[in-house]
């Protein structure tokens, strides 16, 4: 029997490592919700594909691993690591994140995401690497 962890491993591999956008249609219900991937709630595969395209334009060779996880009923929660390379420079990128996802019959119904995008954008050179420390010290980032 497939576990929720199996479903998420397949999702991460197909959607991110293989960049197989057909997996988004297959595994994410049409009116499903994904939160924590920007300012708005992403509704269904169409919105998620836009996010996917934007992230894949910045990163290549994406690999997401599940480091720790818990399953309870329809819910799956995990701490994950994302390793990739910058599309522009080829430099390695490493960030962590967590997901809390409701899965029914092997399909993603709703997802709550918390990824360290601040660190990722810093590693990509889109923000000063000291952004977190400066903000924590109360300094405005200009």
Q: Would you tell me the structural class of the helices and strands?
A: alpha+beta
User: How many structural domains can be distinguished in the coordinates?
Assistant: 1
Number of helices: 5
Return Rg in Å: 16 Å
Percent of residues in β-strands: 35-45%
Helix content: 25-40%
**Which residues sit in consecutive blocks of at least 5 with pLDDT less than 50?**
none
* CATH topology tier name: Nuclear Transport Factor 2, Chain: A
How do the strands of the widest beta sheet line up side by side? 2-1-6-5-4-3
Give the assembly state of these chains.
Answer: single chain
Global outline: globular
Secondary structure: number of strands? 6
Query: Element order, helices and strands?
Result: HHEEHEEEEHH
Cα-to-Cα separation, first versus last residue: 52 Å
Q: Give the C-level CATH assignment.
A: Alpha Beta
CATH architecture: Roll
Q: What kind of sheet is the major sheet? A: 6 strands, mixed
Mean pLDDT: 95
Structure commentary:
The structure is a single chain. By secondary structure, the protein is of the alpha+beta class. It has one domain: Nuclear Transport Factor 2, Chain: A (Roll), CATH 3.10.450.50. The chain has 5 helices and 6 strands; from the N terminus they run ααββαββββαα. The protein has a 6-stranded mixed sheet. The radius of gyration is 16 Å and the shape is globular. The model has no long low-confidence stretch (mean pLDDT about 95).
Give the helices and strands, then pairings.
Layout: H1 4-17, H2 22-27, E1 28-35, E2 42-43, H3 44-58, E3 59-72, E4 75-86, E5 92-104, E6 107-115, H4 117-123, H5 131-136
Parallel strand pairs: 1-6
Antiparallel strand pairs: 1-2, 3-4, 4-5, 5-6
């Amino acid at each position: 029997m497939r576990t929720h962890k199996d479903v998420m491993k397949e999702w991460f591999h197909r959607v991110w490592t293989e960049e197989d956008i057909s997996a988004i249609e297959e595994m994410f219900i049409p009116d499903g919700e994904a939160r924590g991937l920007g300012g708005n709630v992403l509704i269904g595969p169409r919105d998620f594909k836009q996010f996917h395209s934007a992230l894949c334009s910045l990163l290549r060779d994406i690999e997401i691993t599940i480091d720790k996880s818990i399953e309870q009923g329809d819910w799956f929660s995990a701490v994950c690591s994302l390793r990739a390379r910058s599309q522009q420079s080829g430099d390695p990128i490493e960030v962590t994140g967590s997901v809390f996802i409701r899965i029914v019959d092997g399909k993603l119904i709703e997802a709550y995401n918390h990824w360290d995008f601040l660190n990722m954008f810093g590693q990509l050179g889109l923000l000063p690497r000291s952004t977190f420390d400066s903000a924590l010290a109360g300094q405005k980032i200009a």
